[in-house]
Design goal:
The protein has helices spanning 2-33, 37-62, 68-94, 102-116, 121-132, 154-160, 165-176, 182-205, 212-224, 227-236, 252-259, 267-272, 281-286, 292-308, 318-327, 329-334; strands at residues 261-262, 314-315. The chain is mostly helical and 346 residues long. Helix 2 (37-62) packs antiparallel against helix 3 (68-94), helix 3 runs antiparallel to helix 4 and helix 3 packs across helix 9. It is globular. The structure holds zinc ion.
Length: 346
Amino acid sequence: MGDDRGMTTIARSREDEEESMKELKRKVEAVLKASSWWERTGLDCATLAAAFAICLPAGLLLLRSSDWPRWLCGLLLMGVVHAIVTVKGAHLSSHGALGHSLAAKRFWAIFFIEVCSSFSARAAQRAHINLHHPHTNVIGLGDSSTWKLPRLPRLVYLFLAPLTLPIVTPVAALAQLGDTSAALLLRTLALILLGVASHFWLLMAVSGFQSPLGAALCMLATRSMFSLPFVHVNIFQHIGLPMFGENGRPARLLQMSHGVLNLPRNILLDWTFGHSLISCHVEHHLFPFLSDNMCLKVKPLVSRYLADHNLPYQEDGYLSRLGLFFHKYQELMVAAPPITRLAGIQ
Ligand SMILES: [Zn+2]
């Protein structure tokens, strides 16, 4: 009898949460409907276009300079362009946010993920869209365990290993395509090579590098410039938060409000990684169809709604999170995470 009452309470709570999620979605969709095309997609597309049309040529030309401060500005600009294209561009395109037709969405995903980011669009779809988003913090599915390398000491993992990402990424992409067709494997390999070769050619032909080794080192510096924050952001926003078992997962609103964390706004990371990966990660997990700019626009609405419904809206600073992972590396990144059961606590 007691068990029956408990189940009813949990069932009603889940229904309430699902109803709340629908209500929040209606409010967000109303904001979306009232927003202009520029707000919905234009600003994010313009940011990506400006990275290609303005920042990339400027960076390449500054790298021609024999004046060190100007040359360093060129290198920094190339790193910023690479981060905008490979993090913001690849992430938005993986969600199909850069096109209306299926063909356009597919084209941009392949362009940003394979040509620009040296990864596989198929593997990104599987890991990010099919697993991470629907199964956020569900153990064995979307628990961020792919980011754990327990054999590495914390200093190596947090500050050195990310620098190898430009080399590790294409190798990992091809390894993950082992169970797919040879044609897909060849396409991905060809597009990754096209991206790397284009980058190398631009440095030799436009920036005037005389030595292939110099151009290769410049490419490596550009491509690894934002790899530390890239790895940090990926682990900071989920690991260490409540984890759920596959059978005991809570309703979506509870799952995302407990299992996702926002970092504060940061002008460099806002524009390179995008709001949905920095200060609006909660909003992005609740509404993955929103662009970066729309995530920012609905942020006050979402945070107020969660507060009004006594749900957490988790936020923490970058350095605070880095300190936590540094001091609790063993617990967070090596040991298995404990499962949290949320049913009935609200
Ligand atoms: Zn996403």
